Automatic annotation (TrEMBL):
Protein's UniProt name: Aminotransferase class I/II-fold pyridoxal phosphate-dependent enzyme
Taxonomic lineage of the native organism: Bacteria, Bacillati, Bacillota, Clostridia, Lachnospirales
Residues passing through the membrane, by range: none
Limits of the Aminotransferase class I/classII large domain: 16-338
Any one Gene Ontology molecular-function term assigned to this protein's record: transaminase activity
Species for this entry: Variimorphobacter saccharofermentans
Length: 348
């Protein structure tokens, strides 16, 4: 059983990391420059209120500043949400990001898992609503989902949000990968309609800065941001995170360029993986979920290539892997490595 997260380059000899889903175009130049400049201010405390960053993001998203709350990555916000709401019963669709379960367990409440099925390409079915009953306090939902890459339509999401509002259920909607795909499916423009909606995003993936740790939530409920914020430590955002985040909020052109690039490379990688004999599940994010009967994780690691073994995701089993979409040269190298793997003395 491998680790619960990708990116373990510290205990493996890795030349190419396909286990983490960050922007293959790398850090925008302006963001990198801001990080270097922030070194000069390390002798000062960062702004405890992150006002400059908050103003910039408020303008970027066109939401009031009081609807925003920042965290040391989205993971810190998930934990703060749990401590702020203290749900007695939480629903988590699976397979999905382990961080939801990790946070939910901090409340000592009951966790209900709704399992999506492989035969339905891991998409929700009508029976999903049968678990969203009045005794449920909170639902974790991701769009697009990780690790499957499924993207729910606005119509589907609104149906879920309407149902949860009627049942008194808070919805934590993880949109950390939405900027890689069709953002028309984002619920950001519906944020004022649903006071039970807590939308969470991160700068981590789209701007390739996982080491900086910067996430944010958007919520129109007048009470929730303050209550959740009280669960966070003071100065939880470093000067580096605030400086980088401010510049990230100015990178609309970079994001548009990324969307087009990811779509092209995802299609290239999907075609190559299918040709190599892998089962590829339909996804719209910057990664692909695949299935292979061959031990791809171990064989590729021998070649210095790290992919995400998904055997330890609830709802998945041995043979499932998640592969990030990277630059063409790296994608070609991965496909070539898979093609060179030998089984029982024969080339696969």
């Amino acid at each position: 059983m491998k680790g619960i997260h990708g990116g373990d380059i510290y205990r493996n000899d890795v030349k190419a990391d396909f286990s983490v889903n960050v922007n293959p175009l790398g850090i925008p130049e302006a963001v990198e420059a801001a990080l270097y400049e922030a070194v000069e201010h390390c002798s000062q405390y960062p702004d405890i209120s992150a006002e400059k960053l908050k103003k910039a993001l408020s303008g970027m998203l066109n939401v009031p500043r009081e609807n925003l709350l920042f965290g040391n990555g989205a993971s810190e916000l998930f934990m703060a949400i749990i401590h702020g709401i203290r749900p007695r019963k939480t629903v988590i669709p699976i397979p999905s990001f382990y961080g939801y379960e990790y946070a939910a367990r901090a409340a000592d409440g009951e966790i209900i898992y709704y399992e999506t099925k492989e035969e339905n390409d891991f998409c929700f079915q009508e029976d999903f609503f049968s678990v969203l009953t009045e005794d449920v306090d909170l639902l974790f939902l991701a769009n697009p989902n990780n690790p499957t890459g499924n993207l729910m339509s606005r119509k589907e999401l609104i149906k879920v949000l309407d149902h949860c509002r009627d049942k008194g259920i808070y919805v934590v909607l993880d949109e950390c990968f939405i900027e890689f795909c069709d953002r028309e499916c984002s619920m950001l423009q519906e944020i004022n309609k649903y006071t039970n909606l807590i939308l969470v995003r991160a700068f981590t993936k789209i701007f390739a800065i996982p080491g900086v740790r910067l996430g944010y939530l958007v919520c129109s409920n007048p009470l929730l941001p303050d209550e959740i914020g009280r669960q966070l430590p003071e100065w939880n955002l470093s000067g580096f995170a605030q400086a980088a985040g401010y510049e990230c909020a100015m990178q609309a052109t970079f994001v548009e360029k990324t969307v087009a690039y990811i779509e092209k490379e995802r299609e290239f990688l999907e075609a190559g993986l299918k040709k190599a004999g892998c089962q590829v599940f339909p996804g719209k994010a910057n990664f692909l979920l695949i299935y292979s009967k061959q031990p791809l994780y171990d064989k590729l690691l021998e070649k210095g290539i790290l992919i995400r073994d998904c055997e330890n995701f609830r709802g998945l089993s041995k043979g499932f892997y998640r592969i990030a979409v990277k630059c063409r040269k790296e994608n070609e190298a991965l496909l070539r490595a898979i093609g060179e793997i030998k089984w029982n003395g024969k080339v696969k």
